[in-house]
Amino acid sequence: MLGNFSYQNATKLYFGEDSLRFLKDELAKYGGKVQLIYGGGSVKRNGVYDAVTGILRECGRDFVEDGGVMPNPTADKLRDGVRIARENHVGLLLAVGGGSCCDYAKAVSVSVHCDDDPWEKYFERYEEPDCEILPVGCVLTMAGTGSEMNAGSVITNHEKKRKAGHVFGPEVMPKFSILNPRFTMSLPKRQMVAGIYDIFNHICEQYFSGEDDCTSDYIAEGLMKSVIHSSLIAIGNPEDYEARSNIMWTATWALNTLIECGKSTDWMVHMLGHSVGAYTGATHGMTLAAVSLPYYRHIMPFGLKRFARFATEVWQVDPAGRTDEEIAAEGLKEMESWMKKLGVALSISELGATEDMIEGIADGTVMLDGGYKKLTRDEVVQILRESLLPSA
Ligand code: NZQ
Ligand code: ZN
User: Fold this and answer.
1) Which of 154, 184, 292 to mutate to test the pocket of ligand 1 (most atoms within 8 A of CB)?
2) pLDDT at 123 over 70
């Protein structure tokens, strides 16, 4: 492990089919009114809303409803959530839903006691909170983002055509998260596979960086193998509890700050995907899938050794008698065939992106330099153009 780092994770997790019963214990730790945050209604259809509100009532807790959090939550909705929290003197933000609800709750948590506009302060100027932060709890219904155990929050501003993520400090991590894999069973297959690809890509974003072979890389490979294995079971039988529970647990570990230790981390697939999302409103995991292969083929020569290791360790490509270039290319082919089995998007045109959007999407792509190649703007445009068509 080269370099220096600190590690702290503030979130307490409750995992499994019985995990919701621990909500009672957690509620007792936080006073004031509960702001019950949920999305467009899935939790009302699958019974999770009734189960959670039943516990709130049983515990005699007042709560204010804050539903309608859309996938890829917006700056306008965030301002609305802050208003609700202020008017009701809320003491706990309880997100019941996927990453969007959880991210939104975190963004509200740092904004309630702050006079600045939250979009401008946190998602344009990337300032850190200098005010009291409300506690956040999460009852997760979708596996993918890892938001349940990290300090990330991603907000979309449609007027500005920008989707921006802010990774806050440990004080913004949910205080607790409840992970019942059964709650994810009602996800439509398209959302399930988008979440699976999101998990896989989070691991890739951290794995494809650095020259040394560190402990984080070995953990990352284990997580990748687990998600590939479970995903193939889950697409055949989405009701398979064992597969779905492994996917949920892998999602948490893929992005809860563990496997970034000692890594510079890449995150360019996410930067491209977020900008595609700002223009199309497409599902997060699908935007990542649609730009991944052109991006990885582009940077492969700059991180050849790691791409060859990815091929042999994750995809069991036989290295005998082959060059690193051939091994690495074979690994990406294996990854592509897995993506086809999942049924994720393989082009941004499938998601509604068109040639005339390319320059704007490139403008909205935040450029990072932790991966194997710092892209130029021309390279971003080239990768986006290649992403318009499914790879040959
Ligand atoms: O809104 P409802 O009706 O609840 O429906 C949701 C939504 O339409 C539905 N859904 C969720 N659980 C369900 C369900 N439908 C049926 N049964 C269930 N059990 O699924 C749809 C997508 O939900 P959403 O929360 O938007 O998905 P996800 O968890 O993928 O979150 C996406 C957001 O997280 C951000 C993304 O950019 C995006 O804005 N990310 C957050 C990260 C973080 N905090 O670290 C990292 C990620 O890379 C990502 O950027
Ligand atoms: Zn993601």
Assistant:
1) 154
2) yes
